[in-house]
Amino acid sequence: MKKLHSDIISFLKRQGFVIVSTLDKDGTPHNSCKGIVEIDAKGLVYLLDLYKTRTYDNIKRHSKLSITAVDEHSFKGYCLKGEAKLIKESDIKDAHLKAWEEKIIARISKRMIKNLKGEKGPKKHAEVLLPMPEYLIVVEVDKIVDLTPKNIK
Fold first, then answer.
1. If you ran DSSP here, which 8-state letter would residue 20 be given?
2. Could you read off the pLDDT of 137-149 as tens digits, one per residue?
3. pLDDT tens-place string over residues 104-133
4. 99 partner at 20 to 30 Å CA-CA among 44, 105, 117, 134?
């Protein structure tokens, strides 16, 4: 397991979502958006998933995956590669569900503030229609790829 530096942890926590890449049955990549609910400096990343569909099936079949996050404004990004474990809904800790709810509230609040400032964007808050998470993905990070171009570091 690869330890996560505090800079990487705070970068990931600032992201609204990350892209999780798994492998479909035929070996082609499948990408989906997920929200991080906890990051452990020891190298564990916790993601809640709302639907047991392709990502879930792909992890059951092949547990290797990657988590990618980029920030266009700062021109920084990271790709974390590792092994995933699936935790069923009944075993999700209350702290993880609370963290998920807080992220949803923060996203809605941020959008409302932008709307009040007159910034264009959707007036509906799709997050309120989302179901509760169906399972938890725990990723043990094996490799960290810094996506920041070398000449910018």
1. E
2. 999 999 999 999 9
3. 778 778 777 777 777 776 666 676 667 788
4. 117
Cα separation, 60 vs 85, in Å, equals 8
Tokens of residue 130, six digits: 């989302």
Cβ burial, residue 115 (10 Å; 0-12/13-18/19+) = middle
The domain spanning residue 12 has which CATH number? Answer: 2.30.110.10
Please enumerate in sequence order all residues whose Cβ is within 8 A of that of 108, keeping only pairs 6 or more positions apart, or say none.
Answer: 125, 127, 128
Q: Cβ distance 49 to 36 under 8 Å?
A: no
Task: Establish if 74 belongs to a structural domain.
Answer: yes
If DSSP states are collapsed to H, E and C, what string results for 60-115? HHCCEEEEEEEECCCCEEEEEEEEEEEEEHHHCCHHHHHHHHHHHHHHHHHHHHHH
